């Protein structure tokens, strides 16, 4: 694969052209990466050289100036080409979006960080989905900092990443930090042999006594309870992450209709396609609400519960839509060469991001009953 190396950040029109060009290239590789359990390393080299990684950073800080919604649309586009690439990219884009949101309220706090990410086209890696409220791993206090030890799972894009956005527990306190992937004591374990999203390379990352300076601790919080940081994560991150699953579903819909078109006059096929379209429309409607809140709402318990509820509704409709697509496409869907089964498998990963079904229902129920997100009297 050859990739254009731009001299400067793309304009928004140029960005759209580059995304379209790259999606064409990525589509041709997606089947190979899926079949061989390979991380799409070449795709991330192309994303970096085309300055896609910094697209969501404001132009005045050296980025591409793409809006929150434009980043979501970019992820949808890449998802239709290579689901795993889009998922790993989303795990970079959402912590980046959190930094941008923070910059808009407190520029001095993160401006230098955003300028560095844009200047060096760094890739962020997230471990928050696996850690969530409880955190994982240990942090031992030493002179000048901490020693982090942990095994972090589901680190999408691990082999291409520069900064690991992670956490570890010191006594009852969870410490958050951005840890360079070149730090002594960090190794990547090739564990990602999965049902779907194979190109995402969501390997395990092991930290063995990795030194993290005091100055690198970005947040301290109690373990196991909601913190304002997680209300912001819920608000900003999940609409972007689920842009990927929407993009996968939209591609699955298009491929299903392509296969079913030869039976378009058949009444049963019409009903099956109509059911698929209905499920997809419900998922899209839920996602549009998520995007509107992610772009403009203020974080808080009620918004977090609403995002999680919409995410659950979206997930249920996406999974239903995937099953309906297999029925509508008929026996052709069972052949790997037609691409339907790969998209169906990739779509299944939507069920595993926090909160899954029972924690989501518990959160919604607590707030409806007048309790806090942690189950205490309001």
Could you characterize the architecture of this molecule?
With 378 residues, this protein is an alpha+beta fold. It folds into three domains: 111 residues, Butyryl-Coa Dehydrogenase, subunit A, domain 1 (Orthogonal Bundle); 95 residues, Butyryl-CoA Dehydrogenase, subunit A, domain 2 (Beta Barrel); 141 residues, Butyryl-CoA Dehydrogenase, subunit A, domain 3, CATH 1.20.140. It is 53% helix and 15% strand. It has eleven helices and eight strands. A hairpin with a 2-residue loop joins strand 2 and strand 3. Helix 4 packs antiparallel against helix 5 and helix 9 packs across helix 11. The longest helix is centred in the middle third of the chain and has 33 residues. The protein is globular.
Describe the structure concisely:
With 378 residues, the protein is α+β, with helices and mostly antiparallel strands. The protein has eleven helices and eight strands. The chain has a four-stranded mixed beta sheet.
The count of strands amounts to: 8
Count of individual domains:
3
Q: Which strand-content bin applies to the residues?
A: 5-15%
Can you write the helix and strand succession as a string? HHHHHEHEEEEEEEHHHHH
Q: Rg, please?
A: 21 Å
Biggest sheet, open or closed, and with what strands and sense? 4 strands, mixed
Helicity level? 40-55%
Query: Which fold name is given in CATH as the topology of the largest domain?
Result: Butyryl-CoA Dehydrogenase, subunit A, domain 3
Poorly predicted regions: 1-7
Mean pLDDT: 95
The CATH superfamily of the largest domain is known as: Butyryl-CoA Dehydrogenase, subunit A, domain 3
Shape: globular
**Please, how many helices?**
11
Tell me what the CATH architecture of the largest domain is.
Up-down Bundle
The neighbouring-strand order within the major sheet is 1-4-5-8
User: What structural class do the secondary elements suggest?
Assistant: alpha+beta
Q: Termini, distance in Å?
A: 56 Å
The CATH class of the largest domain, by name, is Mainly Alpha
């Amino acid at each position: 694969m050859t990739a254009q190396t731009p001299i400067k950040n793309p304009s928004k029109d140029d960005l759209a052209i580059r995304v379209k060009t790259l999606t064409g290239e990525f589509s041709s590789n997606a089947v190979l990466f899926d079949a061989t359990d390979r991380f799409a390393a070449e795709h991330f080299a192309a994303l970096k050289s085309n300055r896609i990684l910094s697209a969501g950073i404001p132009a005045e800080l050296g980025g591409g100036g793409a809006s929150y919604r434009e980043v979501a649309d970019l992820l949808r586009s890449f998802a239709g080409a290579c689901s795993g690439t889009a998922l790993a990219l989303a795990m970079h884009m959402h912590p980046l979006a959190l930094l941008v949101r923070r910059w808009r309220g407190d520029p001095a706090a993160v401006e230098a960080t955003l300028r560095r990410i844009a200047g060096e086209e760094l890739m962020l890696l997230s471990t928050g989905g696996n850690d969530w409220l409880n955190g994982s791993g240990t942090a031992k206090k030493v002179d000048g900092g901490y020693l982090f030890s942990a095994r972090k799972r589901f680190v999408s894009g691990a082999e291409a990443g520069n900064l690991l956005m992670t956490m570890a527990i010191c006594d009852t306190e969870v410490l958050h930090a951005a840890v360079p992937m070149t730090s002594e004591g960090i190794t990547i374990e090739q564990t990602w042999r999965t049902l779907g999203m194979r190109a995402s390379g969501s390997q395990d990352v092991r930290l063995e006594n990795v030194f993290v300076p005091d100055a690198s601790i970005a947040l301290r919080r109690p373990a196991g309870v909601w913190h304002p940081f997680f209300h912001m994560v819920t608000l900003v991150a999940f609409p972007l992450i689920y842009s990927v699953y929407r993009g996968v579903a939209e591609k699955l819909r298009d491929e299903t209709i392509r296969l079913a078109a030869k039976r378009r006059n058949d009444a049963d096929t019409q009903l099956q396609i109509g059911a698929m379209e209905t499920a997809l429309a419900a998922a899209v409607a839920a996602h549009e609400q998520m995007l509107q809140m992610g772009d403009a709402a203020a974080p808080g318990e009620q918004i977090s519960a609403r995002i999680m509820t919409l995410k659950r509704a979206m997930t249920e409709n996406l999974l239903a839509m995937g099953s309906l697509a297999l029925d509508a496409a008929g026996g052709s869907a069972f052949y790997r060469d037609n691409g339907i089964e790969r998209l169906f498998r990739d779509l299944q990963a939507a069920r595993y991001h926090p909160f899954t079904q029972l924690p989501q229902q518990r959160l919604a129920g607590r707030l409806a009953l007048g309790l806090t997100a942690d189950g205490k009297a309001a």
